[in-house]
Inverse folding.
C-alpha cells in the first residue's frame, strides 16, 4: 500500500511539474495549449494498425480537442491547430530550423499569424531551439513536453519579430 | 414552372402545397440524384436509394428513397425563417443543394440567397485562390486496406501554397479498430463496415504517410472554375460525417472521392462499369477527363517521403562521401571530427542532412517518442553550421498514372512433355508482379489478389493455380546502410499443383518467406535470397508442408523489358518425402501500354513452357 501511495505521489508531482512547466514556459511565452486545452499525447502515433491510413477515425482534426477546451482565450481553434501541427510535425520543424528555413517552420509561423519579418523570426527560433536541443535532459522529455517547448519558442519568436 | 413558383410564394410556410409536376421533374434531374447519392435498385430500375444512410442527411423522412419528397422538404427547409444558430439552418447544412436550387428556380433567388455559415466558412474559407487536388498515397504493404494506395481530397486555400495547413477530406471505413486482421479484411470486403468522410488537416497526412509509413504522396491539382470549386466544397460539407456502406473493392476511397467531383455535370471521374476500382485507375481516368473542353488536370506535384528523400540525397553523394556517412553511422569516426569539419560547407550540409534523413527513416514508424542519440548528434551538428542548404537536383519520379491499367488477362499456349500442348487462360484482377510493377507500387515486388490460371487440353480443364492473395514485399536496400539492408517478406495463400507432371495434384497452401534483397549496381538488377516454407493438407508429394531456401533475380533495365528468375530447394517436413527443386524463368516484353508478351519456363521434375499475350484493362 505504501509503495502504491509513493508511486501515486511521484506521479502527481511529475504531472504537476510538467503542467507548470508548460503553463509557465519561457518569459513572455504566454499560455500553452498543450497544458490548457486538453491536447493529449500524439494521437496518430498510437493509432492501431487497422485504423491507420484510409481508416482514420472521425474528428482526428481539431473538433474533438476543442471540445476539451478549458480556457477559451488560449484554446482558440487556431491555437489548438497550431499546437497539433507542432506536435505532429515536430521533427520536420526542428530540422527546418536547423537548416534555417523550410515549409514546416514557415507554416508554423503562418499559424502563429506571422505576416512579415519572418526571416528574423526563423533566426530567433533557430538560436533558441539549437540551445534547447543541446541542453542536458532534452531527450528525457516526453514528446508532448518537447512540443510544448517548441510551441513556446516559435510563439515567442513570432511575437518578438513578426508583423501581422 | 410559373405555376409552381407562384404557388410557392402563396404557400411559403406551407410549401408542400406546391408539390406539382414541375417539382417532380426537377427531382428527376441527374444533379439532384448525384447530390443525394441515389443509385438505382438492382431489382427495380424505377426505384432509387441513397448510398448514404444517415438520417440527418435528408430533409424528408422518406428522403433516402424518394427524390421528389426530399426535394420538396429541402426546398421548404431552405425557405424556412432564420434559426437562432445559423449553422443549423438548411442553407448551412445543405449549401450545395441551395446553390443548385437557386440556379434552377430563378424566381426564388432572393429567398434562396446564401447566409453566413460560421462553421462551414471556418472549415473551408473559400476564396479566389481556392482549388482542389486529388491526393494519392502510394500503396503500402503494411496494411491490407492500403495495398492499392489511398486517395483523398485536398482543399487548397493558401495564397502562398502552404499546403501543410490545408484541409483534406478523407474517406475510409470507420469503427474498425476493435477487429482482428482477418475480420477486418472480411468485413471490409463484404460491406461489414460503415464508411464516411472525415475532415483532416493535411499535416496529419504529411507526417503519417511521409514520415511514419514512408509513402510518397502525389498531388493532382484540378483545373476548375471557382464556381465549380465552391459547389464541390459545398457538397463535401453536406456529406461530411455521413455514413455510407464501405466496400473495399468498389465503394472505397477512390470511388467516393470520384463521386464528389461528379456532382459537377460533365465531369466523369470514376471508371465506369468496373467491378472494382483501384485508386490508380481514378488517376488514369483523370488524365483523360476534361471539363468544358479543357483537361481537368492542372498539374502534378510530387511530395516525396522521408525514404525517397534519403535515397535521393544518398544517390547524390560521391563514393567518398558515402563512405564517410557509413563510417559515422558505424561510429568509426565522429561527426565533429576533422574528416567532416575539413570539408566545404556544402558537403557538410549534404552529409549531415543525409544522416538526419537516415536516422528518421530508421525510426519505428513514429512509435518511438525518444529521438535516437545519433539523430540528435546529427541535428546538433546541423545547428552548429550556418543556416543554408546544399544545392540539390529535384527528385525525379514517374507519376502513378503513367503505369498500366490494374487488371490483366493472358492467353497463352503451353507445352509439357507428358501432357502435351494446352491453351491457358490467366486472369489477374489486380495488380502487379516484379516484371510489370510501375510507379506508385513496391519496386521489384508483387501484389495480386484472385490470380487464376486455367489450362485446357483435349477438352480437359486443369487449374494451374489460384492465388487468393500473393504479396512479395521486396526491399531494394538502396543505401545498404544498417537498417536498410533489404529485409522483405512474402506471403501466398491459394491453390496450386504440386508438380508439373501430375494430372491433378492440386493442393491448398499457405506459403511465407523472409527475404534479404539488394540492388546490384543499379536499380535495374535486383537479387534476393529467401527462407521460408509452406503448410498444406496432407498431399501426395510434399506431405503436410516443406521448408525452403531460394534465390530470385530480377533484371529490368526499362519498363519495356524484364527477366525474372527464381530457384528454390524444398525439403518436406516429413522424412518420407524427398527434397526437390522448383525453378521458374520468365521474360516479359512490353508491346504497348495495354499489351505484353511473356515467355515462361517452369521446372520441377519436368518442364512446362508457355508463350502468352496479355492485355491490361
Amino acid at each position: 500500500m505504501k509503495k502504491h501511495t509513493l508511486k501515486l505521489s511521484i506521479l502527481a508531482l511529475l504531472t504537476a511539474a510538467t503542467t507548470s512547466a508548460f503553463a509557465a514556459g519561457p518569459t513572455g511565452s504566454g499560455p500553452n495549449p498543450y497544458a490548457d486545452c486538453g491536447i493529449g499525447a500524439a494521437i496518430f502515433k498510437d493509432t492501431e494498425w487497422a485504423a491507420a491510413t484510409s481508416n482514420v477515425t472521425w474528428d482526428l482534426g481539431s473538433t474533438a480537442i476543442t471540445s476539451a477546451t478549458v480556457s477559451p482565450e488560449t484554446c482558440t481553434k487556431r491555437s489548438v491547430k497550431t499546437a497539433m501541427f507542432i506536435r505532429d510535425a515536430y521533427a520536420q520543424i526542428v530540422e527546418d530550423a536547423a537548416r534555417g528555413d523550410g515549409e514546416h517552420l514557415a507554416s508554423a509561423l503562418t499559424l502563429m499569424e506571422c505576416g512579415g519579418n519572418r526571416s528574423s523570426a526563423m533566426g530567433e527560433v533557430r538560436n533558441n531551439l539549437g540551445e534547447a536541443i543541446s541542453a542536458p535532459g532534452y531527450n528525457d522529455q516526453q514528446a508532448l513536453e518537447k512540443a510544448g517547448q517548441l510551441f513556446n519558442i516559435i510563439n515567442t519568436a513570432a511575437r518578438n519579430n513578426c508583423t501581422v | 414552372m410559373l405555376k409552381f413558383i407562384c404557388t410557392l410564394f402563396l404557400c411559403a410556410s406551407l410549401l408542400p402545397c406546391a408539390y406539382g409536376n414541375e417539382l417532380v421533374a426537377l427531382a428527376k434531374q441527374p444533379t439532384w440524384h448525384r447530390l443525394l447519392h441515389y443509385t438505382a435498385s438492382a431489382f427495380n430500375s424505377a426505384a432509387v436509394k441513397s448510398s448514404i444512410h444517415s438520417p440527418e442527411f435528408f430533409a424528408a423522412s422518406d428522403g433516402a428513397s424518394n427524390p421528389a419528397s426530399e426535394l420538396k422538404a429541402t426546398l421548404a427547409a431552405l425557405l424556412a425563417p432564420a434559426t437562432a444558430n445559423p449553422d443549423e439552418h438548411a442553407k448551412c447544412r445543405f449549401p450545395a443543394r441551395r446553390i443548385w436550387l437557386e440556379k434552377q428556380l430563378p424566381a426564388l433567388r432572393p429567398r434562396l440567397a446564401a447566409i453566413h455559415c460560421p462553421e462551414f466558412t471556418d472549415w473551408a474559407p473559400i476564396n479566389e485562390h481556392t482549388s482542389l487536388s486529388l491526393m494519392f498515397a502510394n500503396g503500402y504493404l503494411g496494411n491490407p486496406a492500403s495495398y492499392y494506395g489511398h486517395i483523398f481530397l485536398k482543399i487548397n486555400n493558401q495564397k502562398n501554397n502552404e499546403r501543410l495547413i490545408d484541409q483534406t477530406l478523407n474517406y475510409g471505413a470507420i469503427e474498425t479498430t476493435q477487429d482482428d486482421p482477418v475480420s477486418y479484411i472480411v468485413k471490409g470486403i463484404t460491406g461489414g463496415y460503415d464508411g464516411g468522410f472525415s475532415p483532416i488537416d493535411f499535416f496529419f497526412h504529411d507526417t503519417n504517410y511521409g514520415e511514419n509509413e514512408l509513402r510518397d504522396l502525389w498531388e493532382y491539382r484540378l483545373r476548375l472554375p471557382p464556381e465549380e470549386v465552391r459547389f464541390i466544397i459545398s457538397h463535401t460539407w453536406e456529406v461530411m460525417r455521413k455514413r455510407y456502406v464501405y466496400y473495399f473493392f468498389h465503394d472505397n476511397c477512390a470511388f467516393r472521392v470520384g463521386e464528389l467531383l461528379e456532382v459537377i455535370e460533365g465531369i466523369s471521374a470514376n471508371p465506369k462499369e468496373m467491378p472494382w476500382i483501384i485508386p490508380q485507375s481514378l488517376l488514369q481516368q483523370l488524365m483523360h477527363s476534361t471539363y468544358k473542353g479543357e483537361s481537368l488536370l492542372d498539374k502534378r506535384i510530387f511530395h516525396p517521403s522521408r525514404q525517397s528523400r534519403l535515397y535521393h540525397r544518398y544517390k547524390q553523394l560521391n563514393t567518398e562521401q558515402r563512405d564517410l556517412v557509413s563510417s559515422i553511422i558505424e561510429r568509426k569516426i565522429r561527426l565533429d571530427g576533422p574528416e567532416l569539419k575539413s570539408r566545404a560547407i556544402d558537403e557538410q550540409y549534404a552529409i549531415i542532412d543525409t544522416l538526419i534523413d537516415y536516422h528518421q527513416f530508421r525510426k519505428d514508424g513514429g512509435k518511438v517518442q525518444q529521438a535516437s542519440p545519433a539523430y540528435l548528434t546529427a541535428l546538433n551538428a546541423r545547428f552548429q553550421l550556418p543556416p543554408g542548404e546544399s544545392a540539390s537536383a529535384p527528385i525525379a519520379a514517374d507519376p502513378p498514372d503513367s503505369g498500366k491499367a490494374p487488371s490483366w488477362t493472358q492467353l497463352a499456349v503451353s507445352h509439357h512433355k507428358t501432357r502435351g500442348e494446352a491453351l491457358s487462360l490467366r486472369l489477374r484482377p489486380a495488380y502487379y508482379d516484379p516484371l510489370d510493377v510501375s510507379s506508385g507500387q513496391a519496386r521489384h515486388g508483387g501484389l495480386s489478389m484472385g490470380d487464376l490460371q486455367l489450362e485446357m487440353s483435349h477438352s480437359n480443364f486443369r487449374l494451374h493455380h489460384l492465388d487468393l492473395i500473393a504479396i512479395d514485399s521486396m526491399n531494394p536496400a538502396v543505401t545498404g546502410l544498417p537498417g536498410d539492408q533489404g529485409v522483405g517478406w512474402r506471403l501466398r495463400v491459394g491453390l496450386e499443383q504440386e508438380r508439373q507432371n501430375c494430372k491433378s495434384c492440386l493442393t491448398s497452401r499457405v506459403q511465407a518467406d523472409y527475404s534479404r534483397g539488394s540492388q546490384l549496381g543499379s536499380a535495374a538488377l535486383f537479387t534476393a535470397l529467401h527462407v521460408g516454407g509452406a503448410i498444406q493438407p496432407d498431399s501426395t508429394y510434399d506431405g503436410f508442408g516443406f521448408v525452403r531456401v531460394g534465390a530470385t533475380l530480377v533484371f529490368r533495365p526499362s519498363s519495356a523489358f524484364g527477366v525474372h528468375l527464381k530457384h528454390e530447394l524444398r525439403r518436406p517436413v516429413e522424412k518420407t518425402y524427398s527434397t526437390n527443386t522448383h525453378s521458374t524463368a520468365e521474360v516479359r516484353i512490353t508491346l504497348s501500354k495495354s499489351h505484353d508478351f511473356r515467355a515462361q519456363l517452369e521446372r520441377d521434375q519436368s518442364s512446362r513452357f508457355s508463350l502468352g499475350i496479355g492485355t491490361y484493362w
